Amino acid sequence: MRMLLSWVAFGAAITSFSKLWVGVRGALEGQRLYGPAEALFWMALFLGCMGFLTFVIYAADRAAGRTRRAMPWFDRLLDRGRTAGGVEATREH
Q1: Is residue 50 part of a domain?
Q2: Which of 20, 66, 69, 77 is the most exposed place for a label (fewest CB within 10 A)?
Q3: Residue 88 included in any domain
Q4: In this structure, what are the phi and psi dihedrals at residue 88, rounded to the nearest 5 degrees?
Q5: Is residue 87 part of a domain?
Q6: Taking the C-alpha atoms of 39, 42, 48 and 52 in order, what is their torsion angle to the nearest 10 degrees?
């Protein structure tokens, strides 16, 4: 499932970057292709997809032991629900 989401995020990042680039080229040529709300949407989609891809790649590298520097924010997300010993924490209801 994570692999499918990664490919979807990659495709969305490429599409959103393409839309952003077309908008920038249009603005430089004096044309207004879309409004600021749509530009912010494409920018947010691009940054969100790139952030997700960064997280997935970091998680895979960390699981394989190939990280050189820790990324504390990603580590905090990856370690959610684990105790200091690395054992899954159980929730009692």
Answers
A1: yes
A2: 69
A3: no
A4: -60, 135
A5: no
A6: -160
Which pTM value belongs to this model? 0.77
pLDDT digits (tens, 9 = 90+) for 30-65: 998 889 999 999 999 999 999 999 999 999 999 999
DSSP 34: S
| Lookup result for tokens 């960064």 | 54
- Structural contact between residues 62 and 73, judged by C-beta atoms closer than 8 angstroms: no
Q: Which residue blocks in the chain are alpha helix, DSSP H? A: 2-28, 36-64, 72-78
Q: What is the share, in percent, of the chain residues with pLDDT greater than 70? A: 87
- Give how far Cα 80 sits from Cα of 15, 16, 20, 40, 51, Å: 32, 31, 35, 31, 18
Nearest alpha-carbon partner for 60 in 2, 1, 8 = 2
Q: Report if residue 59 sits inside a domain.
A: yes
**Contact call for residues 10 and 53 (beta carbons, < 8 A):** yes
